[in-house]
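Project standup — Tuesday

K.O.: blocked on the structure for the chain from last sprint. Re-posting the sequence here as requested.
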Amino acid sequence: MSAAKKMQLSAVGTGRIMSPIKTTVYGPPGCGKTTFASGSPGAIYIPTEEGTNALDVARFPQPETFADVLDAISELASGEHKYRTLVIDTLDALEPLIWAQVCANDPKKAKCIEDVGGGWGKGYVAALDQWRILLSRLEGLRKAKSMNVVLIAHSQVKKFANPEGSDFDRYDLKLAGKGASGLITEWSDVLLFATYEVEVATDLKDRTRGISTGNRIARTVHSGAFEAKNRYSLPDPMPLKWDEYRAAVKAYYAQGSSANTTQSEPQAKEVA
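H.V.: unblocked you, prediction finished:
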């Protein structure tokens, strides 16, 4: 007797599926990215740099290799614990560990990413495979423990090759590897550009200048000046505060009737 088919019309469902959120937040140094993530429920950090040192948060030892990072994720996926959000801080400090792994995997033990496989960009292609392994492990963690994932990165200004007109500069993730930024962006449910709120003021001579209000904000919608996205109709801009973020996501799910909103398996402990 053949196994029962999974893809049957009787198995078709409707409505929104409530699941742990995949968030990437990036921006200039010191704008509050790490503090934002620390407000997430039951946060535990994999600190690839020392950005968490001034915060009272749970953290693994700083990884020395990419294997250390994967081991930490596996520990969370297989062990019993109280944590509900994994934060990797930062991706740009993780990238050299990935490159070192790629060089170690190279048959000729290349000394730098540019020399892997004989050059011609093969090292960056191999690095993307390691990034995919990371994302696969994070997906496994989400399914096993229903944990949110927050990835933190710094920003950099990159030239955008505009297929519809002139090229221009914009903010993007500070990742040097070709394709890595796009891979992370596609994987994320929410990509937040963290920055400072700026107001434009005009003096008596009609000269304009930007004045920072001191408020930290998150941009949630794509712009020519930066990359951003979200799946939850988040306001743009919004305060860079986890409570505000959580409330906005919950409001999105509340728009549908409870009859049409389901939870992924295993059941999500709580949205965001």
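K.O.: great, moving the ticket to review. Helices lie at 33-38, 66-78, 91-105, 122-145, 180-187, 242-254. The chain has a mean pLDDT of 88.
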